[in-house]
Amino acid sequence: MKSVKSRSKRVVPPFSSQSRQPNTIVAGPPRSRSCQTPIGNTAFRRYYDRGDFMLSVDSGRVMWKTSFENIDYHHYLPIFFDGLREVAYPYRAVAERGATDMLKNGTPDRILPVVPQLIIPIKLALNTGHPDVVIATLKMVQTLVTSADMVGEALVPYYRQILPPLNVYKNLNKNTGDGIDYAQYQQEDVGDLVNNTLEILERHGGTHAFINIKYMIPTYESSVAN
Q1: Which 8-state DSSP code applies to residue 150?
Q2: What is the reported pTM?
C-alpha cells in the first residue's frame, strides 16, 4: 500500500522545471494496450488474392515480375507494410519479403517520401500484441531505418504514434501472465529486440531522437551517450 506521502505527490510534465522540485512525480507517456488492433483482413490480403502485385510466389520464394524502378513506392510499400498484420500463410511471409526487397533495392529519394504513409501500418501492427506480428514489425522498422539516409530522422515526429506499445513489450522477456511467453516464442527475446530497435532509432534519428525516445519509453537508456 502506498504511503500518504507518496499519494500526495504532484504529477508534473517530464523535462520540465517542476520535475526537479520535491514531492513531484514525472508523468509517463500514454499507456498502450496490446491486442487492441485486429489482425488479418488487410488491404495487402485483398491485393494479393486479386493478383494485383507484380510478383509471384514459387516454393516460398517471391519472384518479382518487374524491376524496382518501375514500382510505385508511394502506392505499394504502405500496402506491404499493412501485410505485416497478417498471421496466415502466405500473406505475412510475402509481405515481409516484398517490403524487405523494396527497401533494399529502393533509392533514398523513393523511400524517404513514403515514410509518413508507413506510420499507420506500423502502429496497427505493433498494437495487435501478436508475437509473430510484433517481432516481424520490429525487424521491419530496423530495416526501414537503415535503408536510406534521413529515414531515422524522418521517423522522430511519429514516435508518439509508434513507440507506446514498446513499453509493454520491453519487459516481456518472461511470461507475465497474459498467456504469451514472448521470450521463448520462436527463440526470440522481444525485450532485447525492442532495445535493439530503440538503439537503431537513436543512432539514426539525429540530435532529438534520444529525448523523444526517453519521453515515450522512460526506462530506455542511451546507447550513444555511453
Answers
A1: T
A2: 0.79
